[in-house]
Amino acid sequence: MSKRLQVLLEEPELREIQRAARLNRVTVAEWVRQALRAARKRQPAKDAARKLDVIRNAYQYRFPAPPIEQMLQEIERGYLSDGPPELRRENRDKSS
Fold first, then answer.
1. Which residues, other chains included, contact 79 with Cβ-Cβ below 8 Å and sequence gap of 6+?
2. What is the tens place of the pLDDT at every residue in 17-69?
3. pTM
4. pLDDT tens digit string along 55-65?
5. How far apart are CA 18 and CA 25, in angstroms?
């Protein structure tokens, strides 16, 4: 079942929305629905407290990991190796 939502806007803001809707070839109502859907998708799926609980829980475990210097050296060696072309140093330097 559809429900009506009333929103009060200042004239300049309404004109901007009308212009945006016209550029997208949709009604103002459809433009607003799309904007609200996009805003909802940007919202985090879980609340921050739940995310922190998961991180705290994971932190109690110990996983083997080398010192950061060793990890960085291994990553650099991977870039310099004959790995995928997009990861090779000469291609990274060209794109900079």
1. 87, 88, 89, 92
2. 999 999 999 999 999 999 999 999 888 777 888 888 888 888 888 878 889 99
3. 0.48
4. 888 888 887 88
5. 10
Helices (H) and strands (E) in the chain, counts: 5, 0
Q: Print the domain residue range for 85.
A: 66-96
| CA angle (89, 65, 56) in 5-degree steps | 115
Length reported for the chain? 96
Encoded amino acid at 27, one letter: T
Largest CA distance in the chain: 60
Residue 43 sits in the same domain as residue 70 = no
Do the domain assignments include residue 74? Answer: yes
The H-or-E segment that residue 86 falls in is none
